[in-house]
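Q: Could you fold this chain for me?
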Amino acid sequence: MSQTPAQSPEFNPSRGLHFLISDDRLTVTMSVKLGWLAGGDVNHILLLEYIESTGIHRDRIDMKAVEAAALDIQKALKDSDKSKSQLEFVIARGIPPKQGQNGWIKFFFQRAQRVVLKDDGSADFRNINKYVHINEGDKLATLFEGVPGEQGIDIEGKPVYPNPIDRPKLTLGKNVLPKTVADPENPSQQIKEYYAGVSGVVFSTDNSLTVSPELNIDSSIGLGTGNINFEGTIRVKGTIEEGAIVNCAGSLYIDGNVESSEVIVGADLEVKGGVKGKGKGVIRVKGDLHTKFIENAILEVDGDCIIENFILGSKIYCLGNIVLTGESSSLIGSEVIAFKGVTLASLGSAAQMDTTVEVGFHYKNDRLLNEGSLRLVELDKELEAVLPEIQKIKEIVQRTRGKLDEARKQKFKDVFDAYSKKSKTLELLRAKVEELRSARYNNENVKVVVRNTAHPGATIKYRRQIDKIVKPQTSFVMNFFPQQDKAMMTAFKASK
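A: Sure. Below is the predicted structure, expressed as structure tokens.
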């Protein structure tokens, strides 16, 4: 009967073979300490036994590499110079995942921009894109949805997932026609193209697209037309008469005047005449305002206010710049509040009418702060009113040692849950109020530019700074920065 050859006492594969798995778990390196393998029979079968004992999936083992390693080990053991050295072999490999391609959206129309004030206080109108008009059949956008990656396998046979890809989606509104075509730059891939189904105005976000045809009114808006509520752009050849209600989700273009205070515009308002109010009601504009003059009106404008001639007896809240462009333009007997800057020719009048300019102030955040502060007080009172009931419930629970029927348990739980929920709401609101407290102010440099004269009776405000004009001041720029004690005043120099 044959016997298995006796192994050398030094032969210890458990100590001589070590397996190192890479961080990405896609390769296994076998480290061999030859000193522990001397005197033994090292073959690929022995190596496989130890490799498989580590949990490496058999399909991931490189059999040829294992056989080659066994031969190299045997050869090294016979070489006295190498018998105590250490060898390394890559003996298993996973399949790396194939990364995908990110998707993308490309628009083929310009996006609107705001007016930019130059350092000298003048307005740069050249970089303003008016509301985007498109024609039927115009290409609006191209969408590539991306190519997902392919799953790999690690050395244990487990899946290795590719990185997620960006898969943009384009939500289509009305009058947008899709078309699937081959990508000209990569014909093996398909892209989607989108075209305007009608002529009109394109409305877009980063992931939505719609085209609305314009509403053209060849008369004034008043009794003859009834009130107007339209989702797109409106062009009016006449005037918006007093008492008319206009709700325009797009831009509103008026050839005459705006004489009604019940006007809401979702984008830009452009008035070739002027805005004439009765000192009541508020005209709200989400975009920019362009007009010749404003008289006895109250306006809230989220963009820039561009006025050619004058503002008289009005109040304007603006989140952009207020720019009076005319050489003799003036702000008289009015109060204007701008989050950015104000530039004009004359501030106030020789009649010394009260005229106030405030810059760097976000009126909407201030309102939210006031509303939030009032709500904080209300919530505090509501929580305080519940405390006696909470205390009473705790006493009952202690007295009964928690032995309550299910109905009372549920009732007490509902009280505690309501209290906890209201407490969390209070803390969130408190944090938001603190955020709004600083968000009321513009943290960037803002300017007041007077190209001609500021008259006594005018006041310029910035945060806690109040500058009252007590004698005529001519051609100056006031630069305001956060945390300054006094505004820097420099001479105004007209750009050539």
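A (continued): Helices lie at 13-16, 44-52, 63-78, 363-399, 406-439.
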